[in-house]
Automatic annotation (TrEMBL):
<feature type="domain" description="N-acetyltransferase">
    <location>
        <begin position="1"/>
        <end position="135"/>
    </location>
</feature>
<dbReference type="InterPro" id="IPR000182">
    <property type="entry name" value="GNAT_dom"/>
</dbReference>
<protein>
    <submittedName>
        <fullName>GNAT family N-acetyltransferase</fullName>
    </submittedName>
</protein>
<dbReference type="InterPro" id="IPR016181">
    <property type="entry name" value="Acyl_CoA_acyltransferase"/>
</dbReference>
<dbReference type="Pfam" id="PF13508">
    <property type="entry name" value="Acetyltransf_7"/>
</dbReference>
Length: 182
């Protein structure tokens, strides 16, 4: 039962987007910002910092998807008055869930950071890109979003990463760029 939450993630998210379960267990145990909330209806894993919240994984039970549970959950996070960030894979004609995730965030008022390019590598070195989506209770710049994502990379994705992956998977200088820098 302890690893049931990870099995739920594995069934829904692409493998290259998942952290190793041991990595996540250490984050839960040792990083004060990293948290997990779960019910039979949803599972959300996030990191709450002083001025923003990074939504690492959000999963609504397939049986209750479309009933508004995910939007209510996002609204509860919006009520905390902090910027919300999420990494969302680009739409893919071969992956209907990727399109649904994009529509979900857009429907809930998130905007795509149009000027930030975010490219990581799988464990076997294959590049993959993600979009950064954000919602903020007040006007914010993409510069601030980029700075927040640097914190996410350094403190969450790279937390004890060498132990789990043998490398740093998300060095901000390597994975985050302005569109004009490419």
């Amino acid at each position: 039962m302890e690893q049931e939450w990870y099995t739920r993630l594995e069934k829904y998210f692409p493998e290259h987007e998942l952290k190793h379960p041991e990595h996540m267990q250490e984050l839960f145990a040792e990083h004060v910002a990293y948290r997990r909330e779960q019910t039979s209806e949803y599972l959300i894993i996030y990191a709450e910092f002083d001025d923003f919240i990074f939504i690492d994984y959000l999963l609504v039970n397939p049986k209750t998807r479309g009933s508004g549970i995910g939007s209510k959950l996002i609204d509860s996070f919006k009520n905390r008055g902090k910027t919300l960030l999420a990494e969302v894979e680009p739409a893919d004609d071969n992956d209907k869930d990727a399109k649904k995730r994009l529509r979900f965030y857009e429907k809930n008022g998130f905007r795509k950071a149009e000027n930030i390019v975010y490219t990581r590598e799988t464990d076997d070195g294959q590049p993959f890109s993600m979009h950064i989506y954000y919602w903020s209770p007040s006007p914010t710049s993409e510069t601030q979003i980029l700075e927040n994502m640097e914190v996410v990379c350094e403190q969450i994705h790279n937390f004890h990463a060498k132990r789990h992956y043998g490398r740093i998977p998300a060095d901000p200088e390597d994975v985050l760029h302005w569109k004009s820098e490419q």
